[in-house]
Every structure is written in C-alpha cells, then in structure tokens.
Amino acid sequence: MDSLKKTLLAATIGFVAIGVFGTLNQATPTASQPPAASVARTSAPTFTPAAPTAVNPTDALLAQAFQQRLSNYQITGSLPVSRLLPDDNDGSRHQKFILQTSTGQTVLIAHNIDLAPRIANLQVGDTVEFYGEYEWNEKGGVIHWTHHDPAGRHAHGWLRHRGAVYQ
C-alpha cells in the first residue's frame, strides 16, 4: 500500500510540474489582433514587463514604460479619453488627444491624419484601443505610429474606436 501511495504522489507532482512549466512556454498573442496590452521593442527583443498590479493591464505597462524611460516600444492597449486637443497642423497633420490610466498617468496619442483617417466624433470618456510606438517624456509619454507605414519599414499601427479601425 505504501508503494501505491508513493507512486500516486510522484505522478501527481509530475503532472503539476508539467502543467506549471508547460504554460510558461506558450506563445504570446500577435500585435495585429491584441487581446490585451503588450509592449515590444521595434528593433530588438520583446520587453517583458513585471506582473501587472493595476486593474487594467495597460495601466501597468504604461507605468513601467514611463518609470524605465522607454522609447521606441510598440505597445497595445485600451484606455479612456481624458482630453481632446487641437490638431497639430505643422508638417504632417496629427489628431491629438490624451488617454488616462486608472492610476492617473496620461499619455498623448498623436495620430497622423495625413496617412490614416481621423477618428470622427471622438468624445471625452470614450475608450480607444491602440497599437503604436511609445516614446517617453516627462508628461507620461506619447504614442505615435498609429497608422500604416506606406514605405513598409515600420510596424503598422492602428486605433480602434466604437468598432472602427483607423490605420
């Protein structure tokens, strides 16, 4: 009877170990259809953030990107609009607005409307999903490259608002 208990215990430990270590090796979602927030370096290996502690995973990713002063990082997520800004019409035209995390951090979206359609009827409080390049600044950061790259040299970004994709 003792050898049966030992065999069952060993088998249980083996199955638990396989389950734990097997899930660590699963593939991450692709950027074209992101189910949750993620960050990746555009020209080098993927940045792996610490385990999120905020309610919205985007909050933790932006907090870490800001704290580490990261730039040139592809990031995807979803946040509410906290402020609408006038368009920037110097050079390439950009629709600008600010998103805010639940922790109060803000990030500027600079969406090139010479390369992608503007988001029509955008309102404070609306949720915007995004995939673009994060650049650190002292105010919380900027996300740009939220459009296709006609030259094909940069990751294609996008914004999603009320089910419509703008790229």
Would you summarize the structure shown here?
This protein has 167 residues and is of the alpha+beta class. The chain has helices at 2-23, 57-67, and strands at 38-41, 71-84, 94-100, 106-112, 127-135, 142-144, 158-161, 164-166. Strand 5 and strand 6 (142-144) form a beta hairpin.
Q: Which runs of at least 5 residues are low in confidence (pLDDT < 50)?
A: 3-54
Query: Span between N and C termini?
Result: 66 Å
Oligomer: single chain
**Widest β-sheet, arrangement of strands:** 2-3-4-6-5
Name the overall outline. Answer: globular
Element-level helix/strand string = HEHEEEEEEE
Count the helices. How many?
2
What amount of the residues lies in strands? 25-35%
| Number of distinct beta strands | 8
What does this molecule look like?
The structure is a single chain. With 167 residues, this protein is α+β, with helices and mostly antiparallel strands. The protein has helices at 2-23, 57-67; strands at 38-41, 71-84, 94-100, 106-112, 127-135, 142-144, 158-161, 164-166. The protein has a five-stranded mixed beta barrel with strand order 2-3-4-6-5. A hairpin with a 6-residue loop joins strand 5 (127-135) and strand 6 (142-144). Residues 3-54 have low confidence and may be disordered.
